Amino acid sequence: MTAAVSQPLTERRRTVAESVRDRADSLDRGETDIRVDLTTIGESCLIAAGLGGDGIGEMVAVIEDIAAESLAVGFSLWAQRMSLEYIDRAPTPLRNRYRDDLAAGRLVGVTAMAAALKHLAGLGELPLTAERTADGLAVSGPIHWASNIFPESLIVFPAHGTDGTRYVAAVRANAPGVRIAPAPELLALGATSSTSLTFDKVHVDADHIVTDDLAGFCGNIRPTFLLLQTAFCSGITRTALTESSARLTGLGAQFAEEYQTLAARYESLRDRLHRFAANSATAGPADLIRLRLDGSIVAVAATRLESTLRGGAGYASSSATNRRFREAAFLPIQSPSEGQLRWELSQYE
């Protein structure tokens, strides 16, 4: 790991992106999963890029470069980094126990915090209930969707106490009472091991409670949550537009205006993303919501344009064009979904 740190960040990003590119087809075919990629990224000291600093520009660039080669890996890396962000804000014993392993990719992290952000927006209740015990919490209920679910994973989740307290806590996926549903077949993202879980009186030690101030905690992490999601939208958009730009002659010339419009929207997106990532204090809540919404919309439009320009060759399921088209189809429904983002944005207008 020391040797990796001695290399410039841009060189490490390029090397890891090439590794992800080489594995992207195998991931798409379900022949492997993202744990290999997370380990490689961790060994290159990129999972924790800029952690605890004044901005997250370094991590935005890492996720962009990786999502440009495989949205599946970029998405799982986002989940890994968010799990690390949560644990980095935890009490010292919990932070010391898991932070280094998460940063190195030796431990896979699961962010199950989508329900908390939806709840705090006024769009639903927390599905997990926590009862106080003599030495921690007993947690029951469903997690309707999460990714990076492997038996050895660390899950960070929200729960509401019977006394009204709202917690963030952590538990291993192989803890007694955690039931992992069989992973469904997904469109392009099967390698992310995404599925639902049920907790049945799962014991959470007191020293695995991250916080009992859910609202304050989520207020602190939400800018990073949305900015890093936008980063993987930006990454896949960049590749789709690059591929499209080479096919704007002949019949493709009919799409030149559409391409120019999308390219301008992408440049605006990326400019805002990196400006806010350098200093999230410059962005208000509405700015971040609009950015994440724009990221999803532009990515879907860019992959559609690439598919159209590529023609029949892009329709083959084995092609990278087809994979990007299928990967981007996930973005409007990923939490926060396009519907939730539009609703939240409307509250500021």
Keywords:
8-stranded mixed beta sheet, 13 helices, 53% helix, single chain, alpha+beta, Butyryl-Coa Dehydrogenase, subunit A, domain 1, 8 strands, 349 residues, Butyryl-CoA Dehydrogenase, subunit A, domain 3
CATH class of the largest domain: Mainly Alpha
Strand content: 5-15%
Give the helices and strands as they follow along the chain: HHHHHHEHEEEEEEEHHHHHH
Which structural class do you get from the secondary structure elements? alpha+beta
Weakly predicted, low-confidence segments: none
What general form does the structure show?
A: globular
Return Rg in Å. Answer: 20 Å
Mean pLDDT: 95
CATH fold category name of the largest domain: Butyryl-CoA Dehydrogenase, subunit A, domain 3
Helix proportion range: 40-55%
At the fourth level of CATH, the homologous superfamily of the largest domain is Butyryl-CoA Dehydrogenase, subunit A, domain 3
